[in-house]
Structures are given as C-alpha cells and as structure tokens.
Amino acid sequence: MENYTVYMEDVTIDTVTETVAIVSFLVGIISISLMVFLFFLICFGKRYKKHLFYRLVQLDFVTNILCHINTWFAIRIEMHPDLVFILKFIEYTVPGLLKWLKYLCYWFFHVHFWTAELLTLHRMASILFPYRYNKISNCCCIVIFIVIVIVSHIPKLIWTGFLYEIYIVDGKLIAIVYPNTVKTAIDVVAVFSIIYIALIITTGAEYLWFVLQLVDVTSKASIKRTLRNTSTVYSLVYMGEVVWSVLNAANSHFHFFSPWLTEHNTTFLLIVSDIFTLSLPYILIFLDKNVKDDVWSCFKKCSTLIQGTPAVVSRSSFI
Fold it and tell me: Where is the signal peptide (predicted)?
C-alpha cells in the first residue's frame, strides 16, 4: 500500500465520537484527580509505607495518568476539528513531537502489561517469601521502572521508522500515513497480546497452585485477600484491552467488523483503553480495606468542614 497524506484540519466529526469524547473527558478528569489523591494518600499514609504492593500501585498511577493524557494529544484531539489548532501549536513549538506522542500509544500498551503483571508477581512473592518480599527498597522500584521503560520499547525494533509523521506545510497541519508500517505494528501488538494473555493466565494458575500447596501462610488473611482481589480484577480488566487488540489485528486481515464498527474502531479502542487506564483507583476503593477506610475518613472530615458548626440562636432574640 502506498503512503498517503491526511489534512488534519479538514477532519469531520460525528455524534458518537463527540459524545464519547465528552464522557471520556469528564470521567478522565474525575479519575485522574482520584489517582493523584490516592498517590499522595499512599505517600503520606503510615499504613502503606511497609508494603511494596502500594509502591507498585503508585507506579501504575503514574503510567496510567501519563497514558491517558497522551491519548488526547496523540489520538483524540485530531478527531475534533475545533481543537486541531492545539496540535498545530505543539508542532510549531516542538517540531516532531506529535509523531513521538503517537508512538507512545503503542509503548504504553506494553508498559500496561508489565505494571499489571507486577501486581500478580507480587502476590506470588508474598506467599513464597512472606518475610522478605516487602523489604525491596525504593531504589529497586526505580530500577524496575527503568527496566519496564526499556523492555516496552523492544517491540518497536521489529518495524522501522514511524507509523505517522506530522508536518506543517503551507500553514496546514498534515499527517503522512505509512499503512504498511501501521499494519505491521498492529500485527506486532496482536502477537504480543496473545503472549501477554498466555502469561497472565499462566501466572494466575501458578498463583492458585501456590495457594493450594502452601496452606500455612504467615501473612494475615485479610491482607492476602486484598492483594489477591485487587491484582486479579486489575489483570482481568487488562485482558479486555489485549483481547480487543487481537480482534483489531484480525479484522485488518479478514475484515469481519461491520462497516459501522470499522468506522468507529478508534473510538471503541479508546473506550477499551480508558476502562483499564482509569479503573485502578475504583478497584482499590472497593477492594482495598486500607484505602477504603482512609478515603471514607477523608470524606467525613471534608463533609464536617463544609457543613461547619451549627449556628446557635439565643432565645432572647425572640423576646
């Protein structure tokens, strides 16, 4: 397939895309605010300091916030003609940045797997090494993060160049699309999605086996249950993203999506991505007793401050 040029300022928008964008924007603001709040709650809460699990949760918060913000500049804004001027300003200010932001969507896909898988590996370590698994220092967490950054870039080495290149030509913002590279990238994502699904299922099965074999575990039952539920639900939510990636790649070869679904494929991909990217704070609030108690405590304190002290009316004022 030959390369082609898209004039990004000539884009049109439909009701479905616009509605999804508004909902995504509102949900994104609420979810990111909640993630920032929980990030600092974990930072300063005494009950979280000794648990590696919460350091990994903070890592997830950072990557999820950056990923969601990146999708707006890489994908969402260009779908809305009234907002393309923002991309034009970015390209004027930092030439070449937009093509890297588009690539980061693929990079974050792999980062998501490793951050989700770390929670699963953590719960296995909590059983195998109950006395030592929480003694990993913050420096080790930084090393883990650097390794994830590097490993998540390795799939990019399978194809050369960028999928899209953005330029300003004669005052107009254009995108040069390389369809062959895009198709290769989609296939690579599909292959890794299958690998990730297999790894998630394998580690989940191994964890179950360890639980059945090691009945006498020193950790408290409630803590184990919290770690298990949180990481399990989070992994299952991530499965939705990788399954959609496999279906999307298969559709590029066999074209079994309906015309309407094909037209809104990008919109649905963003929905699936948001479900995973924005889900962790809600999973923690519902399943993690420590987080739930602290959030409820903060909520009650805020309610008390807002309501203030009830006014006392003297009887003499009515005499």
Answer: none
pTM, to two decimals: 0.87
Question: Which residues make Cβ contacts (< 8 Å) with residue 150, sequence separation at least 6?
Answer: none
Residue whose structure tokens are 């420590």: 290
Packing angle of the helix pair 221-254, 97-128 (nearest 10 deg): 140
Is domain 9-160+194-295 in CATH 1.20.1070.10, yes or no? yes
- Element holding 48 (H helix, E strand): none
- How many other β-carbons are positioned within 10 Å of the β-carbon of residue 185? 21
Choose among 162, 159, 164: nearest CA to 187. 159
CA quadruple 143, 148, 153, 157: dihedral sign? positive
Q: Sheet harboring 172-177: ordered strands across? A: 4-7, 172-177, 164-169
Hunting for tokens 């704070």 — which residue is that?
Answer: 281
Compute the distance between CA of residue 294 and CA of residue 163 in angstroms, rounded to an integer.
45
